[in-house]
Structure to design on (326 residues):
């Protein structure tokens, strides 16, 4: 499948109807999702026939994409009822059978919960900008305990050094695959600017 | 909720040391058709908690793995059906140690804990 076809396909994914600020809910754009998944699939072969987890899946654009790229099974994890309802709707509309979903709080999962049960974890975690500082690292830690092969994640470029330090502490290899620009259109009432650009790293973590 | 997902889920209620496997109490189950991928099934088998899968399959699977399953298509198809085609739509999952029940609604298991059990 070509990148632009994947992107067109993901444009059909329904997004949040009433995003919740405190959960940092915003959809991963079809363009960014397609670029991420395309690389994970074509460069690293970490999707097809693999067991994939999508932490903080929201309405499921990454999960849908992974399923479309023939993941053996992709399991989404999210805390929010409303997002999960849209996720299920998307799953049905795309008629995908290799997707499943679990409602839980990623941050309260014990370390042993899903240890090494997945080949790959893909995620666009909350960045920790809404009174939840450090949540991105919680997500990362959980993701690393779940994956046997690799974790693919988006993190603010400004936190790169900090994450590198943690990766070294955790004895995990970190590779910045690309630098992306997140164009977040004004989605909440308090946003004054029309849109804001955030520099984001697309990172691949793997056990050393 | 597919049974492959169930095979992975644990209860993390406070104080519980062995919250696995979760007991399935299903009130609505659906069986869908999912494309059979023998390599995937074959690769998954050693990663599964086989006894938990047997328990969840309620008699559809043998209690111990047959030898040379990689080349046994009939067996792999049985496992495929249990892992990926059977879906629990409504019901609950019960923690084997604490008895706490986690509801499954519209195919989604809700593992969120209340203040008392986390």
């Amino acid at each position: 499948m070509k990148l632009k076809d994947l992107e067109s396909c993901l444009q059909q994914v329904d997004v949040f109807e009433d995003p919740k600020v405190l959960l940092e809910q915003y959809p991963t754009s079809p363009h960014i999702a397609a670029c991420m998944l395309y690389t994970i699939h074509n460069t690293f072969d970490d999707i097809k026939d693999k067991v994939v987890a999508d932490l903080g899946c929201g309405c499921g654009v990454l999960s849908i994409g992974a399923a479309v790229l023939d993941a053996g099974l992709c399991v989404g994890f999210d805390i929010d009822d409303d997002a999960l309802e849209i996720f299920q709707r998307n799953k049905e509309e795309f008629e995908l059978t290799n997707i499943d979903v679990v409602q839980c709080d990623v941050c309260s999962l014990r370390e042993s919960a899903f240890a090494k049960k997945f080949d790959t974890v893909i995620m666009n975690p909350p960045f920790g900008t809404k009174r939840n500082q450090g949540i991105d690292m919680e997500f990362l830690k959980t993701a690393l305990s779940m994956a046997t092969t690799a974790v693919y994640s988006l993190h603010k470029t400004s936190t790169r050094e900090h994450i590198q330090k943690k990766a070294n502490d955790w004895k995990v290899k970190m590779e910045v695959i690309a630098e992306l620009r997140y164009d977040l259109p004004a989605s909440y009432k308090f946003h004054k600017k029309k849109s804001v650009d955030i520099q984001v790293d697309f990172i691949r973590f793997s056990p050393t | 909720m597919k049974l492959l997902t169930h095979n992975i889920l644990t209860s993390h209620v406070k104080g519980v040391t062995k919250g696995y496997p979760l007991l399935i109490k299903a009130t609505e189950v659906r069986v869908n058709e999912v494309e059979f991928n023998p390599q995937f099934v074959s690769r998954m088998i050693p990663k599964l908690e086989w006894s938990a899968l047997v328990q969840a399959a309620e008699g559809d699977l043998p209690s111990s793995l047959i030898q040379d399953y990689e080349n046994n298509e009939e067996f792999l198809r049985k496992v495929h059906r249990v892992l990926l085609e059977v879906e629990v739509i409504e019901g609950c999952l019960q923690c084997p140690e604490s008895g706490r029940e986690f509801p499954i609604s519209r195919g989604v298991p809700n593992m969120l804990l209340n203040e008392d059990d986390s």
In short: The mean pLDDT of chain A is 91. Chain A has one domain: 3-14+24-207. The two ends of chain A are 31 Å apart (CA to CA). The longest strand of chain A covers residues 172-185.
